[in-house]
Specification:
The protein is of the alpha/beta class. It is about 35% helix and about 20% strand. The protein has one domain (about 5-190): Vaccinia Virus protein VP39 (Rossmann fold). Strands 3-2-1-4-5-7-6 form a seven-stranded mixed sheet. It is globular, with a radius of gyration of 27 Å.
């Protein structure tokens, strides 16, 4: 989903250090955490809402005791503030928004859900820590969620993949958003604009010319009387 490790490795690995404490959100049954371990990043904690999935991943990677697996709601992480150098998600936010009918106008519930996750991500990151999000959502859909000053981070974007492009967002805590990004972020807090009523041109064949002529004559009569 969203490409295998090799498709985004060149974007991801330069942002990581071997000593980084990495948190993977919504790990599912993806091999991402294990691939990070094989790539030289051994301190990886992975969380998922499903206890069944977490138990299966513990069994699958029992031969790698350094990898940690926890059952947890990504909207309410059970870690102390400043616990991680890197938080990583691949498709988790997309999964949380699958019920949305219109990606251009996300419901208040969807906005709140994403905000809960991002607020928790910001909380558990150390100053200077990084949040990395890999998704199918293009900037015109996703930037407005990430570009909120209250999270206290900057935002960069890149794409990866052949043919169909996926999106790689990098947020660094302690840096600032640009003015343009803040403007995009403000849009999601604004109520949706009401639809513009249709404008119909009047058909000249149906105009009431006789009424118009009578009004004109009456106006001339009043003017002459004055």
């Amino acid at each position: 989903w969203f490409g295998d490790f090799s498709s985004f490795r060149d974007l991801l690995e330069p942002e990581l250090r071997p000593e980084d404490r990495i948190l993977v959100l919504g790990c599912g049954n993806s091999a991402l955490s294990y691939e990070l371990f094989l790539g030289g990043f051994p301190d990886v904690t992975s969380v998922d809402y499903s206890s069944v999935v977490v138990a299966a991943m513990r069994d699958r990677y029992a031969h790698v005791p350094k990898l940690r697996w926890e059952t947890m709601d990504v909207r309410a992480l059970g870690f102390p503030s400043g616990s991680f150098d890197v938080v990583l998600e691949k498709g988790t936010l997309d999964a949380l928004l699958t019920g949305e009918q219109d990606p251009w106008n996300v419901s208040s519930e969807g906005i709140h859900t994403v905000d809960q996750v991002l607020s928790e991500v910001s909380r558990v990151l150390v100053p200077g820590g990084q949040f990395i999000s890999m998704t199918s959502a293009a900037p015109h859909f996703r930037t407005r969620h990430y570009a909120q000053a209250r999270y206290g981070w900057s935002l960069r974007h890149a794409t990866y993949g052949n043919g169909f492009h996926f999106h790689f967002y990098l947020m660094q805590k302690g840096k600032e958003l640009s003015v343009a990004q803040l403007a995009l972020g403000a849009q999601i807090l604004s109520p949706p604009r009401p639809p513009t009523p249709p404008c119909f041109l009047q058909d000249s064949d149906h105009e009431d010319f006789l009424s118009a002529i009578q009004l004109l004559k009456y106006s001339e009569f009043l003017t002459q009387g004055l």
